[in-house]
Amino acid sequence: MTTTHYRTCSLCEATCGVAIEVDGDRVVSVRGDEADPFSRGYICPKGTALADLHHDPDRLRRPLVREGSSWREVEWDAALDLVAARLREIRKAHGKHAVAVYQGNPSAHNLGLMTYGQLALRSLGTRNMYSATSLDQLPHMLAALTMFGNQILMPVPDVDRCDLFICLGANPLASNGSIMTAPDIKGRLKGIQARGGKVIVLDPRRNETAEKADQHLFVRPGSDAALLLGMIHVIFAERLVRLRGERLAVRGLDKLRDAASVWTPERASKATGVSAEDIRSLARTFATTPRAVLYGRIGVCTQEFGGLASWLCYAINALTGHLDEPGGLMFTTPALDPVPLAARLGQQGGFARWRSRVSGKPEFGGELPVAALAEEIETPGEDQVRALITSAGNPVLSTPGGPHLERALERLDFMVSIDPYLNETTRLAHVILPPTSPLERSHYDVALAAFSVRNVAKYSGPVFQRGPDQRHDWEIYAGLFSRMQLPLGKRWMERALGKLGPEAVLEVALRLGPHKLTLAKLRAAPHGIDLGPLESRLPKRLGSRDKTIDLAPAVYLGDLPRLERAAAPAGLVMIGRRHLRSNNSWLHNSERLVKGPTRCTLLIHPDDAAARGLVDGATAKVATGRGAIELPVEITDTMMKGVVSVPHGWGHGRKGVRLSVASTVPGASINDIIDPARIDALSGTSALSGQPVDVS
Ligand SMILES: Nc1nc2c(c(=O)[nH]1)N[C@H]1C(S)=C(S)[C@@H](COP(=O)(O)OP(=O)(O)OC[C@H]3O[C@@H](n4cnc5c(=O)[nH]c(N)nc54)[C@H](O)[C@@H]3O)O[C@H]1N2
Ligand SMILES: Nc1nc2c(c(=O)[nH]1)N[C@H]1C(S)=C(S)[C@@H](COP(=O)(O)OP(=O)(O)OC[C@H]3O[C@@H](n4cnc5c(=O)[nH]c(N)nc54)[C@H](O)[C@@H]3O)O[C@H]1N2
Ligand code: SF4
Ligand SMILES: [Mo]
């Protein structure tokens, strides 16, 4: 007898509804849930991998303690006692900043981590908090903080109602969208074209999204700020500014005009490789299309001018009347609204309130850039990092200078990883605490529903009950922190939460939310509830006291001279890419997702290949000052001349990993050769894109 469970896929930001057919303790099939009002049956190939993940024999079920290079399974109580004792000792001897934390991407898809886990980690009081944020959306958050007054107030494109979608540094057809929760984004973009609208992609690679777009323009990596300033120059020069003055008050209009004054389209063209005529025409079309949106994503953030570029993405929408208007860049009204909650907890965010000990990198939202982690471990002195908690992260593969970080991690007095796999990072831990699989826990998209292109809410209970010898992420935190006797981890908390689970937090937050939902209402709607299209939310939603938008925050103005001085690189530069069947560094142990032709290849333009005597399929050596990796060559005119592309998250051949499928798949880690010193000097975000390389 089989039963069908409806829930949300937690693997990427698209939050597709899935129908999971189960027979006993086995998953029989995973299909798209036709009755989910948001995803309407759509899933991508990764959705079915939820089953592979759950049944993966390599997935850890019990805590592991390392003895030299071998691992011993231990009971939960013994493991938690051991970890708590070590962390307490180190805090006692060296102070609270000696314990560092690194939180990875899956945290955002995990109800227990988003509720109790976050609070527990904050209660450590360490300045050495790190996460994938500084490899990702930090510049968007900085713009949200400085322009709108709250770091999580990031607007999303109203894809379902726009007639012009300009896509800058994103590839939603591979990534399924980011800071734009939109299941079946391919269908939604097609919808724009079907109603007579246009999709324009600006990217150093004619990516999968560009192939389906109406227009694609190559733009040089790292030059987005110059491009946007060129467009803003035209918008001012041709009097195309259209502020929603009747509703929205703005500051800094003159400063923005001044910032753009030197960036004539001709100058911007030199920096970007986009012709001056194209820059003019882009600016005009964008400004004069009533329902238009310019959406910038990770290509805009993780580069040397990520701060400036992310600010200008929001500013250009505001300047042309496309902010907070249907079809433009809009703010959501989520059922669980993290914005007032963050404000109540004093977490609206902050920037550069302190700096990292060794190299003075700026704090953001209570965290330091991950580019500072290795040096904080290696450099002796007061507050040196001696212990590390990694949670749902694989920084050895996901951060630039991976091998350097590896060596630093080996020097730690103590490291614990909360992770279901023995992988490149966790193999260096002293203890691994593996959480339950996504199918064994309840789910609500606390984070992603706040960035959704329609307001939706959905709760799913676990498909399988967890066994008595397994723990959810939040239970691991509760167990650990109660043993450490931190403010939030009192034993009574553990007992109370142990009974109620994250549902207790969810229930309160839903009732406080704008739609006044309850868990009971959500349980009664297993396919999810549609709460309607996005609505205009300003000025009320702004976090700033004066309820105005700052079009030209001071932090950015000070960074403009750095952009004006920048010279286009002489040789080749490297960028990354994503593939639909992959997810950062951790879904490569699913046979059905990795089969087929090798995906970790070097994409290179025919002229650049010819100049180096490279032929298709040959092995290329890609070298930087940090070392070299070898990859098969794929010659393609989808690459801009002077730019090569390598995907991240590969290279599972390191000794000691327990990933029987992934470690047989060829590939190397791009982060082995990206220079960790390349950061956006303004925000501290790693510059993953635009790394100069030699290819031979
Ligand atoms: N060069 C380059 N580097 C990049 C990027 C790039 O484009 N180019 N992209 C960057 C971006 S955007 C990101 S977000 C980062 C991602 O980097 P990270 O977040 O550091 O790593 P992931 O590859 O997402 O690995 C996730 C880890 O979490 C574990 N895990 C999965 N589910 C759970 C769970 O429910 N609970 C727990 N406790 N663990 C879980 C997995 O086993 C895995 O070890 O990589 C960044 N690095
Ligand atoms: N299948 C799959 N889906 C994923 C992930 C995954 O690994 N695999 N990862 C998830 C995560 S953690 C994230 S953050 C999102 C990211 O989602 P997206 O932002 O859509 O990320 P990418 O697909 O990497 O697209 C980035 C684009 O930026 C371009 N680019 C690189 N440098 C520059 C530049 O300097 N300027 C401009 N204009 N463009 C540039 C690249 O060529 C690429 O086409 O995807 C999520 N979804
Ligand atoms: S697009 Fe794929 S991975 Fe993302 S939520 Fe949907 S099914 Fe899951
Ligand atoms: Mo990410």
What is the secondary structure topology, with strand pairs?
Elements: E1 3-8, E2 17-23, E3 26-32, H1 45-55, E4 64-67, E5 70-73, H2 76-94, E6 99-103, H3 111-122, E7 129-131, H4 138-148, E8 156-157, E9 164-168, H5 172-175, H6 185-194, E10 198-202, H7 208-212, E11 215-217, H8 224-237, E12 250-251, H9 253-261, H10 265-272, H11 276-288, E13 292-296, H12 298-301, H13 306-319, E14 329-330, H14 338-344, E15 351-355, E16 362-364, H15 373-378, E17 387-391, H16 395-398, H17 402-410, E18 414-418, E19 431-433, E20 443-444, E21 454-457, E22 459-460, H18 473-484, H19 491-500, H20 503-512, H21 519-523, E23 529-533, E24 549-550, H22 554-557, H23 560-565, E25 572-575, H24 591-594, E26 602-604, H25 606-611, E27 619-624, E28 627-635, E29 643-645, E30 691-695
Parallel strand pairs: 6-7, 6-17, 9-10, 9-13, 10-11, 12-24, 17-18, 18-19, 25-29, 26-28
Antiparallel strand pairs: 1-2, 2-3, 4-5, 4-19, 8-14, 15-16, 20-22, 21-23, 25-30, 27-28, 27-30
Helix pairs in contact: 2-18, 3-18, 4-13, 8-9, 8-10, 8-11, 8-13, 10-11, 18-19
The structure holds ligand MGD (2 copies), iron/sulfur cluster and molybdenum atom (MO).
One ligand MGD binds at residues 104-106, 110, 132, 135-136, 298, 391-395, 398, 418-421, 423, 435, 473, 576, 584-586, 648-649, 670-671, 674, 688.
